[in-house]
Amino acid sequence: MSANSNVPESLPRVPELDKRKAYILTTVVYExxxxxxxxxxxxxxxxxxxxxxxxxxxxxxxxxEARGYLVQPxxxxxxxxxDTGYRTYVDRLMPAETLGSxxxxxxxxxxxxxxxxxxxxxxxxxxxLAQYSQSLAVVVAPSKDSQTFRHLQxxxxxxxxxxxxxxxxxxxxxxxxxxxxxxxxxxxxxxxSNALNRRLSGKLLAELDxxxxxxxxxxxxPPLHASLVDGVVAGFARVRRPExxxxxxxxxxxxxxxxxxxxxxxxxxxxxLVEEQRTLYHVVLESIERGESTxxxxxxxxxxxxxxxxxxxxxxxxxxxxxxxxxxxxLGARRMPxxxxxxxxxxxxxxxxxxxxxxxxx
Amino acid sequence: MSANSNVPESLPRVPELDKRKAYILTTVVYExxxxxxxxxxxxxxxxxxxxxxxxxxxxxxxxxEARGYLVQPxxxxxxxxxDTGYRTYVDRLMPAETLGSxxxxxxxxxxxxxxxxxxxxxxxxxxxLAQYSQSLAVVVAPSKDSQTFRHLQxxxxxxxxxxxxxxxxxxxxxxxxxxxxxxxxxxxxxxxSNALNRRLSGKLLAELDxxxxxxxxxxxxPPLHASLVDGVVAGFARVRRPExxxxxxxxxxxxxxxxxxxxxxxxxxxxxLVEEQRTLYHVVLESIERGESTxxxxxxxxxxxxxxxxxxxxxxxxxxxxxxxxxxxxLGARRMPxxxxxxxxxxxxxxxxxxxxxxxxx
DNA sequence: GCTAGCAGTCTCGAAAAGTGAGTGCCAATA
DNA sequence: TATTGGCACTCACTTTTCGAGACTGCTAGC
Lengths: 362, 362
Fold this sequence. Notes:
2 copies of one chain form a homodimer.
Chain A: H1 19-35, H2 41-47, H3 54-66, E1 70-71, E2 80-81, H4 83-93, H5 101-112, H6 118-133, E3 136-140, E4 149-158, E5 161-168, E6 173-178, H7 186-200, H8 210-218, H9 226-240, E7 247-250, H10 264-276, H11 278-287, E8 296-299, E9 311-320, E10 323-333, H12 338-359
Antiparallel strand pairs in A: 1-2, 3-7, 3-10, 4-5, 5-6, 8-9, 9-10
Chain A binds a DNA duplex (30 and 30 nucleotides) through residues 38, 40-42, 52-56, 58-59, 61-62, 72-78.
């Protein structure tokens, strides 16, 4: 068989590896990703145009193992990439991929079907990412405090009971019940709502702290009762809730298709992580702290979490307008088609960001 | 060992089974639920006060098998309950259980921590049900159209763009963007909002169809533009969305603890069902169509779904005030502690209903 | 520097053998 | 007539054994 088209004949330069070693590493990673079987020297000479015998490959592979790029599961087995091997492959050897226009078009069309509601859109993104990646999709839902305040309404419910409804430009509405110490005149509520809308509409929720709110309400005459002002401040704080972000999962069943997860212990520890949410939430957020807009990859031990040290995580942030709202992630076996996954997650983030930007309220 | 305290000495009458057969069936089910191993005649004589020899038990068990209450996995194994066996146990033999007051108290306290937001409360219910049952919890979120309309606000966003925000007494807010054919005066929006609130507040969302809305808006002078009226009607229809109900899952990892799911095929088919959602949604809703408020149990083949014919499903509806909002369910192995599960799900539904009723808006 | 050949190592799967739990049946018994 | 002890038999499960196959590292020769 001739050289596989996905393994380019001419490779980028990797200072510490000569051309042949780089090519061998590339083919080992590629072959192992495709077959899930340790790769032996004979397989390589048969399937790829190496121009040398298997004995030479053996020598080279031994060298690559000594330098930490490959490992042997046991003495009489072929080689498997190490974290370093995968890392070198991803950073320097792998050809960049982009999603085919046909697939990209389908993805876009699916987003259109999600409607305008933020929750729905994010759920749809999770579903699509899981489906297209055939892997576990993890999505951190939009943070509240990076959304723009659009409108507020204080609604008289009963004596000493006021409902505060807040709308953001992301089309998210949140409500909060205020129980002021005195009965409040519905007209005052309308006036307060109007004043807050006039003065604060368009600001980030994160900016709407006690000072901002009191400043607006203090200017009213007659002044509002302090307990109501406190209630509105508390309402904004509650709506904002930067600490509580929803995290969505999809496609857990795809893990069962990977031979590396045919082990109830591993499966259990991953599902526990999913259920517990908090750890994965932090791991996913860490991955994009640098604020890049290209996919970020963390491989095996790089995740610094024993439960998933045989997994890799691909992450990318998504936006509404120019504000970063949340993160998409794919968690899969370390043996994943990195090029495809990165192309897929980048395209998904693009379409998601575009769709979110389109549905933002004026 | 003496008779186990969970298997009562005196059993209810089962017309078609004599006292001893009923007792043997009870102990077989009880023992199998506890150990997950087929139950043999020797085990029964050793662990329970039967007063007869194992040979007699063998005769009785053969009889119970002939009548369809027990089955033998293979010739030289003990017996396992059939669907009929479990059904008889659940309906007539099993002692009723209630949740201990300590556990019930903890459950109530956990609900308190969920706050007032409907979404959060339902998510909390899912988590708690999964955690306490150590099983897969399935929760059908509240239907929109059984909620009471409380307040509406039409908000001017831009020319030919109006945001409609609807609040229900369940404290759920939904928004819908209306794009009328003409520019609308913000004052008209306020008047329309006031009219709709005055006339329709307190009605079920399900009642707010085209007629109800047009009747109110037709009385306005000057009349609203027809396209805006259409928009409001569409908005109510969209908010109501009876066909789209969220369904929540929790505790999938607990399946891995049951020996009956140590099989990737079975596991896969259940996780596929979870991911697909629609089938389980229908199965869960079917279970409570009778409108009872006690737990309903469906065992194995009774579910009429090949993928889960080795599972049982316990369901119960939950309420806000006197309206049924949704359903709680536990999906687990057929070999589940039915008494405990039924007590648990009943208590959870009670606390959930109580908490929801408490946080309903006036 | 490369290669052919070979001995050595280790995993994996199939086959074989042994183990034990549990049954059904029967003749004896109260 | 219901019950019991005894016994032969069955069958899944575990352990062991064994051979095949895959791959390596090494060495001597080109």
